[in-house]
Amino acid sequence: MQRIYEPENLMEAELLLGMLASEGVEARLEGRDLIGATGELPVFGLLGLAVANDRAQYARELIDAYNAASPVAGDEPESFPDVLDC
């Protein structure tokens, strides 16, 4: 397994885990248990997504596509303008 991405926070990590799983890529979140130590440990680099070596390139491509995506105009519900319904 190799670490391929460092999410900014736990919410992004969980979102990416779900996205990777939906694409058939099994990923592991490293550092989840260290979040409670923020303040005593450095804030950056605690979380990391790790995947099997043979799936690393594909997982990186998926994450790059996720990071490059932008909302499609008109996709937000009328009751909540400027909020995407995922």
From TrEMBL:
InterPro entries found in the cross-reference section: DUF2007
A UniProt-annotated Pfam family: DUF2007
DUF2007 domain span: 1-65
Name of protein: DUF2007 domain-containing protein
Organism: Pseudomonas psychrophila
